[in-house]
């Protein structure tokens, strides 16, 4: 029986019972992660480092597909049994695992021994030796990447943030860098502890020592002098976007690969994780993670193109203002961007629509695009105005995207919501590349579809970047349940 039919007393009793189970689940989830490199989730929503309330909310989210809350009475025995299996590195979706178990029935431990046979008794094996990561540039994206990488340290990932490289701007530069990492006006305080060692130019965050290297020339940095080897350098500066410029990082001692957090030019592969990350090969030394907008729209476009075909379309981006705009009217080399970002909607160009074709070649030449910068500091929206090749309805299109967000191959990239009250700030901190606003979907004449996609152009994009870094590092842990 759904919990909304219970009496007030029954509701409170049921809530208390969920709290009790979630409280018991927290240390088990933590142990699986730290000791065995096992990441647990509910329909793609991670349970690692989550509070009791967050765990309950993740179970409640299952209503979107199962019509009722996923009972903790179902998932807790699974987690309890998983904790006893001495598993190897893996990613386990408890909601999907529970659905499969319910379908076959039987003893839960026998089921898990069969379903997870390839990692049972693995003693955490499956995550290779640690891989050094260097952040070249420490602005909005660089600091969020640092937060995500630090949250992954200690289990489930081989990536270790070893250094940041910046130009020294003042005598107290190190203190300012640490302070900007500690406090963020949009994303809130850093979740943990920070300390600064000025003598050694290091920031220690949650036990991870991060070397701060001052340099304006990537070719001159000797990373091995700091014990850093075979590093993946993530260039967040945007100064160089072609192969010749980014190759400067590879001339530094101790670097093996470079990832650009902006659209790459020329023959550089632009990777939208989940769509074309299969194009990454071991020999790739320079890659691009494309743009936040390209990441926000490409997964949705892929789903729609696979299902209906896209004849042509236009993408209009309503984008939060960025650091390349002026706070007050002043000279700017770009058109219109010199006008006050906080007081105006600013029409500007975007290459995101055309850039989609680099990750999804079948859409080459089919999309145009423009952008309007608006006076909000984060979270943007893409309006996909599409002419489809096959007819559909708004209901069927939404069902397709909602199902993809929960159980599809792109569920880590696409989210879905149908609340009538959401606004942009509700999506701050979303770890998906884009969130479909189902109530805004329009379909005219069967083939003319308009789909609205929210995206956290800072955090959601940074999560996609980290997924690319993991792929570059060779991480490939198995996901369960198997199809």
TrEMBL record:
Keyword annotations: Oxidoreductase
InterPro entries: GlycerAld/Erythrose_P_DH, GlycerAld_3-P_DH_AS, GlycerAld_3-P_DH_cat, GlycerAld_3-P_DH_NAD(P)-bd, NAD(P)-bd_dom_sf
Its EC number(s): 1.2.1.12
Enzyme class: oxidoreductase
Disulfide bond recorded as keyword: no
MF (Gene Ontology): glyceraldehyde-3-phosphate dehydrogenase (NAD+) (phosphorylating) activity
SUPFAM superfamilies: Glyceraldehyde-3-phosphate dehydrogenase-like, C-terminal domain, NAD(P)-binding Rossmann-fold domains
Domain Glyceraldehyde 3-phosphate dehydrogenase NAD(P) binding: 131-292
A Pfam family that the UniProt record links to this protein: Gp_dh_C
Similarity field: Belongs to the glyceraldehyde-3-phosphate dehydrogenase family.
Protein name: Glyceraldehyde-3-phosphate dehydrogenase
Organism: Citricoccus muralis
């Amino acid at each position: 029986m759904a919990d909304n039919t219970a009496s007030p007393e029954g509701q409170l009793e049921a809530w208390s019972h969920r709290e009790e189970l979630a409280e018991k689940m927290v240390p088990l989830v933590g142990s699986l992660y730290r000791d065995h490199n096992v990441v647990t989730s509910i329909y793609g929503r991670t349970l690692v480092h989550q509070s009791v309330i967050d765990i309950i909310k993740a179970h409640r989210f299952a209503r979107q597909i199962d019509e009722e809350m996923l009972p903790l009475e179902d998932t807790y025995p699974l987690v309890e049994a998983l904790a006893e299996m001495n598993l190897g590195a893996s990613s386990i979706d408890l909601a999907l695992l529970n659905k499969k178990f319910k379908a076959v029935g039987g003893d839960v431990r026998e089921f898990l021994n069969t379903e997870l046979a390839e990692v049972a008794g693995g003693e955490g094996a499956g995550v290779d030796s640690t891989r050094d990561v260097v952040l070249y540039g420490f602005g909005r994206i660089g600091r969020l990447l640092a937060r995500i990488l630090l949250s992954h340290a200690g289990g489930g990932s081989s990536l270790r943030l070893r250094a940041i490289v910046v130009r020294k701007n003042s005598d107290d530069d190190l203190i300012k860098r640490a302070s900007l990492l500690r406090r963020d006006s949009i994303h809130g305080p850093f979740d943990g502890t920070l300390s600064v060692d000025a003598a050694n130019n290091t920031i220690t965050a949650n036990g991870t020592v991060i070397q701060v290297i001052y340099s304006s020339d990537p070719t001159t940095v000797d990373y091995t002098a700091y014990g850093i080897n075979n590093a993946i350098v993530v260039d967040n500066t945007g100064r160089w976007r072609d192969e010749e410029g980014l190759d400067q990082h590879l001339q530094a001692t101790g670097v093996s690969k470079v990832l650009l957090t902006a659209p790459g030019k020329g023959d550089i592969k632009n990777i939208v994780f989940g769509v074309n990350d299969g194009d990454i090969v071991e020999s790739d030394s320079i890659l691009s993670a494309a743009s936040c907008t390209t990441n926000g729209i490409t997964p949705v476009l892929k789903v729609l193109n696979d299902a209906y075909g896209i004849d042509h379309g236009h993408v209009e981006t309503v984008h939060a203002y960025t650091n390349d705009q002026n706070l007050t009217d002043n000279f700017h080399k770009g058109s219109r961007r010199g006008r006050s970002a906080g007081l105006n909607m600013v029409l500007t160009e975007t290459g995101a629509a055309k850039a989609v074709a680099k990750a999804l070649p079948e859409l080459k030449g089919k999309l145009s695009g423009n952008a309007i910068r608006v006076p909000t500091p984060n979270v943007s929206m893409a309006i996909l105005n599409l002419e489809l090749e096959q007819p559909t309805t708004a209901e069927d299109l939404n069902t397709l995207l909602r199902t993809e967000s929960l159980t599809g191959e792109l569920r880590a990239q696409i989210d879905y919501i149908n609340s009538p009250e959401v606004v942009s700030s509700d999506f701050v901190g979303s770890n998906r590349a884009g969130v479909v606003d189902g109530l805004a979907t329009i379909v005219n004449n069967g083939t003319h579809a308009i789909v609205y996609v929210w995206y956290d152009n800072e955090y959601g994009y940074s999560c996609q970047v980290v997924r690319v870094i993991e792929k570059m590092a060779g991480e490939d842990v198995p996901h369960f349940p198997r199809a």
